[in-house]
């Protein structure tokens, strides 16, 4: 079964796509937590960070390059932004297709919400 994000990448499920290349696709989060909230997703389905292998190192690095490019395009590069990757239950991961959150457009506050 393709993941929810694979269905967005293939166009089966609509999304506001802001960037696409042969390695990754970026689209706006459906429930934005900041004025800019974009998900940067490898086109290849990797469920979690635990599944990243040495073979994926170039791809994972590419997500950062794309994040910086989108941040610049969205006008938030100079003020700054947060990049976040959740892993499994304790990380609060909801969609099991690796993705990087790019959030900005306001002060993002302390890094981790205290319990
Ligand atoms: P996670 O908690 O797995 O790191 O983040 C999953 C993110 O995917 C959440 O921020 C959630 O709002 C977003 N999301 C879930 N379903 C959809 C959808 O159908 N479309 C879009 N654009 N985002 C989604």
CATH architecture: 2-Layer Sandwich
Task: Name the overall outline.
Answer: globular
How confident is the prediction overall: mean pLDDT? 96
Strand pairing plus helix content: what structural class? alpha+beta
Q: What percent of the residues sit in helical stretches (DSSP H or I)? A: 25-40%
CATH superfamily: HIT-like
The name CATH uses for the topology is HIT family, subunit A
Q: How would you characterize the largest beta sheet?
A: 5 strands, antiparallel
Strand content: 15-25%
Bound molecules: guanosine-5'-monophosphate
So what's the CATH class? Alpha Beta
Helix count equals 3
Stretches with pLDDT under 50, minimum 5 residues? none
In which order are the strands of the major sheet placed?
1-2-3-5-4
Architecture blueprint of SSEs:
Blueprint: H1 4-10, E1 17-20, E2 24-28, E3 36-42, H2 57-74, E4 81-84, H3 88-91, E5 100-104
Antiparallel strand pairs: 1-2, 2-3, 3-5, 4-5
């Amino acid at each position: 079964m393709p993941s929810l994000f694979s269905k967005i990448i293939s166009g089966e499920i609509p999304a506001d796509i802001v960037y696409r290349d042969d390695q990754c696709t970026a689209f706006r989060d459906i429930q934005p937590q900041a004025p800019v909230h974009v998900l940067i997703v490898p086109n290849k389905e990797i469920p979690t960070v635990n599944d990243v292998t040495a073979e994926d190192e170039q791809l994972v690095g590419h997500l950062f390059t794309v994040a910086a490019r989108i941040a610049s395009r969205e006008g938030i590069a100079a003020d700054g932004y947060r990049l976040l990757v959740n892993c499994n239950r304790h990380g609060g991961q909801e969609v099991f297709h690796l993705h990087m959150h790019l959030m900005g457009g306001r002060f993002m506050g302390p890094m981790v919400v205290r319990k």
